[in-house]
Amino acid sequence: MDRTTTTGNNPRRPDLSRDNLVDAAIGLIDRDGAGALSIRALADAVGVTPMALYNHFSSKRDLIAAVGERLIRSTQFDGGHGDWREQLRYCFGALRHLCLRHPGLPDLLKLDGVVPEAAYAPMDVTKKALQAQGMSELDSVRTFFLLTGYTLSQAAFQSHPTPALAPTEKVRRERISGRGHGPVDRRDPPPEWDFDASFSFGLGIILEGIEGRIRAR
Amino acid sequence: MDRTTTTGNNPRRPDLSRDNLVDAAIGLIDRDGAGALSIRALADAVGVTPMALYNHFSSKRDLIAAVGERLIRSTQFDGGHGDWREQLRYCFGALRHLCLRHPGLPDLLKLDGVVPEAAYAPMDVTKKALQAQGMSELDSVRTFFLLTGYTLSQAAFQSHPTPALAPTEKVRRERISGRGHGPVDRRDPPPEWDFDASFSFGLGIILEGIEGRIRAR
DNA sequence: GCTGTTATATATACAGTGTATATCTATTCG
DNA sequence: CGAATAGATATACACTGTATATATAACAGC
Q1: What is the pLDDT of residues A78-88, one digit of tens each?
Q2: Could you tell me which CATH number the domain at A76-174+190-215 has?
């Protein structure tokens, strides 16, 4: 069946489609985080019954993958104009800013271990930049994992300030652990922590290490 | 009340306690992953009613934090004998192996953004090693985040092979997306991927970058 | 021994979650 | 038009964490 046959502008049937649903889903996670994306919440948001979504996505995993696909595809990773260092800075800066603009994204993907196809665009950029410097394909891929792991972990760290304790939990904790250090929430960095500078510092170290490997070739 | 007043060896009341519960919880996540740790599953495992657990933990977050605390505390991070490089290799090697022995651990902690107090032991090791080389405290902490982010992301990548599609999901997907690339599961590395070598390679790059920073002081 | 207090385990219930199954309806095609 | 089909719905199930109220077991002091 032709995909564009969706009831024209008939208001009776809402115009569901993968695209519209992904739009709405992104709205949800941008507003209230990855946890806010539930089948029922999304159905409510588009004014439809939960099970209706299953005519467009085979599962929540499928939906999540589509969200990731869309967001990552909307980002350009190969815009660096200078040398390999600039290219990598651009590429992973773009990845980082994508994660910061959509703080729910890394959580969402990690939640179900989904890796959208598009997520490997930065890998291609990295391989191209480094192989041009004489690095082997294997080492280029390894370096890609290094850069990606670092970038995502930093973005996640920046995006999630300490989640507050639920009030009732706090009360019960006092009752229970008269002894024993209670659990500790994600410890915040000092409030004036400069995430940009911190990320840049770590990236600089990595780039310097890469340069050493390249020169040692 | 004295903590050791737990009914002696009376079999009527099972000997619940934070320690025993954490033991059982670790058993669950080691056997079936982070997702297998639910209040009800843990209660079943120790032969008790779900709500009984809430006399020992204020919430599931509390339980998770205790599990993390215990596992991390059981690990020694400062056993390196050589120079700062060896110390860091030892420290983050230990962190990595901890995560590999308990593949559910990173997921578990990330799940609720919990960071056990003990998780900052590696930070102390890193600060000590690097400040001894003249690095500032700020940069040492930044470097710690770099090393931790890399180590955890690599361990997570190694621990989670592609989750299989649920059978019904596969069927429905065929029905739906006659068009559109379906979602992609975590793409596996090639089957002969050498995780140890890959981790070592990335760590080497980081250490080389650090050395550059230290020398440039 | 008995009694009151405190610690712990239970029973029940609620609001969520993803999704299987069956049904109903609106649209399109022959 | 009638038949086929795509898509939305209604209901239900098994699961989650946990609030609330109740019951029971252990201990303190008499």
Answers
A1: 987 899 999 99
A2: 1.10.357.10
